[in-house]
Specification:
With 331 residues, the protein is of the alpha+beta class. The protein folds into 3 domains: 60 residues, Arc Repressor Mutant, subunit A (Orthogonal Bundle); 154 residues, no CATH class; 84 residues, Alpha-Beta Plaits, CATH 3.30.70. The chain is built from 11 helices and 12 strands. Helix 4 packs antiparallel against helix 5 and helix 10 packs across helix 11. The model has no long low-confidence stretch (mean pLDDT 79).
Length: 331
């Protein structure tokens, strides 16, 4: 490559190279920058004077590399890393983790002051189109690419129709045509709340199951969500309150014990008194809802619906017959 005669630009390029985890031999750095090894050594000294802890490893596999220092010098981030950092700081600044909200908010304010103009629309889209999800986060984090999240957030911000492929729990991904409303995150998973044009109804989509999102360029007036906000809608969807079959149970356990005993997403818990908790749950398939309730390792009473109680009664009799010694089965 042609020699880099601009010293500040060369130092920034050198710093970017040194942020790689592998050591950089002096001759390779010189060839990459188009300068002499002596110039590389002088530039390394300049970086050290600025507070960057550059270590020189000797030997055949050695070279220059950045190490952990006693202070935090300025960082060089690419565009994706900068947007991801801004999103992470915003999540931490509004999240439930004690002791980091104030420092995250200060760091976010500093970062936004120096954001390049080209990155501000992407960060602004996240800020305008996302909401935190209250309640306990999902146990298993789900990975979603920054490109997918950026596209979903921008479509939410601009109320622009969006096409994508969505993978259900079972089966192959299928095309969906939607009007995105908001993104909701719980720290481990992202959910897209959108109007499904093909199914003519509101739906919640897990962002990690979305592939090939395509903005259509068609902007539409925002629809009225049948909930207080998108976060409440996702919470109700996970709890099954918008499912075809609704169920209520009294759990004979205090709220803390009930919360620890149930898997995330089982339903909404409401304390009744110091020793009892009301569980509201639901599901589109009655048999799956019955299985979910049967797996609850607490004493409880099912209050309805009647068809669920009848199904659980039949399941109980069948299980009793299957686990009772021959000749002693009960109806």
């Amino acid at each position: 490559m042609p020699p880099m005669t601009d010293t500040p630009g060369r130092l920034l390029r050198l710093l970017a190279l040194l942020q790689d985890a592998r050591p950089w031999p002096g001759p390779r750095l010189a060839a990459t920058l188009g300068v002499t090894e002596r110039t590389v050594r002088r530039d390394i000294d300049r970086l050290r004077d600025l507070g960057y802890p550059v270590l020189a490893d000797r030997g055949s596999g050695g070279g220059y590399r950045l190490t952990a220092g006693t202070a935090m010098p300025p960082l060089l981030l690419d565009d994706d890393e900068t947007v991801a950092l801004a999103v992470g700081l915003r999540t931490a600044a509004t999240g439930p983790v004690t002791g980091v909200t104030d420092s995250s908010a200060r760091a976010l304010a500093k970062l936004e002051q120096v954001l390049p103009p080209r990155l501000r629309p992407a960060v602004r889209a996240y800020q305008e189109a996302t909401l935190p999800l209250t309640g306990p986060p999902a146990d298993t984090p789900a990975r979603v690419t920054a490109d997918v999240l950026t596209t979903l957030a921008a479509a939410c911000r601009d109320t622009e129709r969006l096409r994508f492929h969505y993978a259900p729990r079972t089966g192959d991904p299928a095309p969906r045509h939607t009007e995105p409303h908001r993104l909701v995150g719980d720290g481990r998973r992202w959910y897209l709340v959108a109007w499904d044009l093909d199914r003519e109804g509101w739906r919640t989509f897990r962002a990690d199951r979305v592939t090939r999102p395509l903005r259509t360029g068609v902007r539409v007036p925002p629809r009225t969500l049948p909930a207080a906000d998108a976060a409440h809608y996702v919470t109700e969807s996970i709890a099954g309150q918008r499912a075809r079959h609704q169920a209520t149970l009294t759990l004979h356990a205090p709220l803390a014990e009930a919360t620890a005993a149930l898997l995330p997403g089982t339903g909404e818990l409401t304390p009744l008194d110091p020793g009892r908790t009301l569980l509201t749950t639901g599901g589109d398939a009655l048999d799956w809802l019955a299985c979910r309730i049967a797996l609850i390792d607490l004493d409880y009473e099912v209050h309805g619906p009647p068809e669920l109680i009848a199904l659980l009664t039949r399941m109980g009799r069948r299980l009793t017959r299957g686990t009772t010694a021959p000749g002693t089965a009960q109806d």
